[in-house]
Design brief:
Layout lengths: L1 H10 L15 H13 L16 E3 L5 E13 L2 E9 L12 H23 L6 E7 L14 E9 L2 E4 L3
Parallel strand pairs: 3-4
Antiparallel strand pairs: 1-2, 2-3, 4-5, 5-6
């Protein structure tokens, strides 16, 4: 039964305990890793100096995402959180080619491989939660836009790892 749950989690793309592409286990993950390495040769590799709004990343799905903004929330009911928002036109439900299952891995990779190493540029204290947001268009933070496609994933930084922290 436990093996079935683990297999299901890999197939569904759950990102709990994501350790980067080399940290995944299982045959399906190995095949996915090989395929991703062929399509995205430079995975989120960037220096500390290029963390700024407007910078672009190529993520595991192959799409390019652009940093829109970072919003920090301190002391709210759920604790401190940062929302790192990216423009990702390829997730559009009307014209995009990236499904949530693909974008889910993108968000895990962004958290683990990019946000965590850059936390010191974003905030002085480690947040209790990191929320990665992909949107197909600009939407003002906290405002609803029924025409926009937006994907959200929440993570807990724990011992240098982004742990999936579903809403």
């Amino acid at each position: 039964m436990e093996e079935a749950r683990q297999y299901s989690a890999v197939i569904m793309g759950r990102t709990a305990g994501y350790l980067g592409l080399r940290g995944l286990t299982g045959v399906a993950a190995h095949v996915a890793t090989l395929a991703l390495s062929l399509t995205a040769p430079t995975m989120l590799a960037a220096s500390q100096d290029d963390w700024s709004e407007g910078m672009s990343l190529t993520v595991p799905s192959g799409q390019t995402v652009t940093l829109l903004e970072i919003n920090q929330q301190d002391g709210n009911q759920g604790g401190s959180a940062i929302h790192v928002r990216f423009l990702a036109p390829e997730i559009s439900r009307n014209t995009g080619s990236i499904a949530f299952s693909q974008a889910e891995e993108d968000m895990a990779a962004i958290c683990q491989d990019y946000v965590l190493p850059h936390l010191s540029k974003i905030t002085d204290t480690e947040p209790e939660q990191i929320v990665i947001v992909l949107a197909d268009r600009w939407v003002e933070f906290g405002v609803s836009d029924m025409d926009a496609t937006q994907f959200f994933e929440a993570f807990r930084p724990e011992d240098g790892v982004c742990v999936w922290d579903g809403f």
